[in-house]
Amino acid sequence: MNQILANLKIQVNEKIYVKNPETSPLGQKIIENSIILIDEIGFDNFTFKKLGEKIGSNESSIYRYFENKHKLLVYLSSWYWSWMEYKLLFATVNIIDPIEKLNKAITIVTEKVTDDANYEHINEAILNKIIIAEFTKIFQTKEIDQENKEGFFLIYKRVINSIVVMINEVNPDYPFAKSLVSTIVEGNLHQHFLKEHLKTITDCNESVTTTQFYLNLINNVLR
User: Fold this and answer.
1) Residues in CB range of 176: below 8 A, 6 or more apart
2) Per the structure, how many domains does the chain have?
3) Fewer Cβ atoms within 10 Å of its own Cβ: the N or the C terminal residue of the chain?
4) CA 147, CA 149: separation in Å to the nearest integer?
5) The three-state (H, E, C) secondary structure of the chain, written as one string
6) At what angle are helices 98-110 and 210-221 packed, to 10 degrees?
7) Rounded Cα distance, 28 and 10, in Å
8) CA angle, 45 as apex, 42 and 48 as ends, to 5°?
9) Contact 210/188 with Cβ under 8 angstroms?
């Protein structure tokens, strides 16, 4: 699978950026270092000025790629979920048994993320930490409805709906497949956050993974 992924280009809605950062060394440098900087100081403290200082470039050069830092965060999220979509596809495409396929999909979207060497300028493990810490900031804005109309979240919704299809194959009579999957995908991010910062209100820890929790949940709900 890694060999196939290495030859794939992650697609992100072109309305999110001014210029595709994947098309130039500077653009890739912006993406690589924005991930590192947001992880270091948090999205609220992140600015294009600080990013420019980190990469040794003018702040104005970053605006040639992204209108603002929110659009940059949406781009990072879209890239992450597109990467996750490819992982889901190739991990489940040859699995015939519906329950085995669903369990594999849940494992993919909930397991601890490690860096993928196929994309040298993007550290997926650090990007995952950003998605966990900052994911609500992508949606909870006044522009959410307009951005949704423009397709900013299409990839994320495709990931959700691909697992919904798997649930329907396991139990076509279950009436809440979409709510269940969106709860698992977003709840997983929250459980990872709790495990890191608010350990006393989650059962997930070093020995009990979020994957174990959600596999237990989904198999009990759909039995």
Assistant:
1) none
2) 1
3) C
4) 5
5) CHHHHHCCCCCCCCCCCCCCHHHCHHHHHHHHHHHHHHHHHCCCCCCHHHHHHHHCCCHHHHHCCCCCHHHHHHHHHHHHHHHHHHHHHHHHCCCCCHHHHHHHHHHHHHCCCCCCCCCCCCCHHHHHHHHHHHHHHHHCCCCHHHHHHCCCCHHHHHHHHHHHHHHHHHCCCCCCHHHHHHHHHHHHHHHHHHHHHCHHHCCCCCCCCHHHHHHHHHHHHCC
6) 150
7) 13
8) 105
9) yes
Q: What would the pLDDT profile of 61-106 be if each residue is shown by its tens digit?
A: 999 999 999 999 999 999 999 999 999 999 999 999 999 999 999 9
Q: Which residue range is the domain that position 139 belongs to?
A: 1-222
> In one letter, which amino acid is 147?
E
Indicate the length of the chain as a whole number: 223
């996750």: which residue's tokens?
Answer: 84
Q: What is the pLDDT of residues 17-71, one digit of tens each?
A: 999 999 999 999 999 999 999 999 999 999 999 999 999 999 999 999 999 999 9
Asked if residues 152 and 73 have their Cβ atoms less than 8 Å apart, the reply is no
Backbone angles phi, psi at 204, to 5 degrees: -80, 135
Phi, psi (deg, nearest 5) at residue 34? -65, -40
pTM of the model: 0.93
Q: Output the domain CATH number for residue 217.
A: 1.10.357.10
Instruction: Report whether 135 contacts 76 (CB < 8 A).
Output: no
